[in-house]
Amino acid sequence: MAVADHARPDLVAHAHATRASFEDVATELRELLGAKLVAYLGRVGETRAVHQWAEGERMPSDEVQLRLRFALRVALPIAAADSPAIAQAWFQGLNPQLDDRSPARLLRDGDLDEVGPAIVAAERAFLIGG
User: Fold this and answer.
1) Angle CA(5)–CA(9)–CA(15) in degrees, nearest 5?
2) Using one digit for the tens of pLDDT, what is the confidence trace for 69-125?
3) Which residues lie closer than 8 Å to 35 by C-beta, 6 or more apart?
4) Cβ atoms 37, 67 nearer than 8 A
5) Any alpha helices (H) in the chain, and if so which ranges?
6) Which of 59, 80, 87, 90 is deepest in the core (most CB within 10 A)?
7) What angle do CA 121, 97, 83 make, to 5 degrees?
8) Which domain of life is it from (predicted)?
9) Which of left, alpha, beta for 43 (phi over 0: left; psi -120 to 50: alpha)?
């Protein structure tokens, strides 16, 4: 039996992003962050690919799927606490917790094992007002 820990919204978001079909991940990210930012995170040059992912017509590489699941994990608590527009701005903005680099760029270009913990720490700091 699964137990939701509402004191830690990132745990709920992690479980959701992990269990959801990739089509649902792409759809939710598109709604939260916009197709253009999702395309950037997914390393594709056009938003058409994002729409095809959401419709199940096309699948990105396993690595891209992991990155986008991670992005959903981070975006959900921010959007729930504030709004999708704030989540989008947070991903694109220069973040002092990340040495004034944007989470989107780190997530797109970095090794997920290396940048992931820093992005999660920056998300948590943002959520608690840090």
Assistant:
1) 75
2) 999 999 999 999 999 999 999 999 999 999 999 999 999 999 999 999 999 999 999
3) 47, 50, 51
4) no
5) 9-19, 22-33, 35-41, 47-55, 62-81, 84-92, 103-109, 112-127
6) 87
7) 70
8) Bacteria
9) left
Structure tokens at 100: 């004034």
**Angle at which helices 112-127 and 62-81 cross, to 10°:** 10
What are the residue ranges spanned by the domains of the chain? Answer: 9-127
Beta bridge partners of residue 101, listed in sequence order: 95
Q: Which residues touch 103 (CB under 8 Å, ≥6 apart)? A: 74, 90, 91, 95, 119, 122, 123
Which one, of 58, 63, 31, lies nearest residue 46 by Cα?
Answer: 58
Contact between 108 and 70 under an 8 Å Cβ cutoff? The reply is: no
- 106, 119 contact by CB (below 8 A): yes
Query: pLDDT tens for residues 20-51?
Result: 999 999 999 999 999 999 999 999 999 999 99
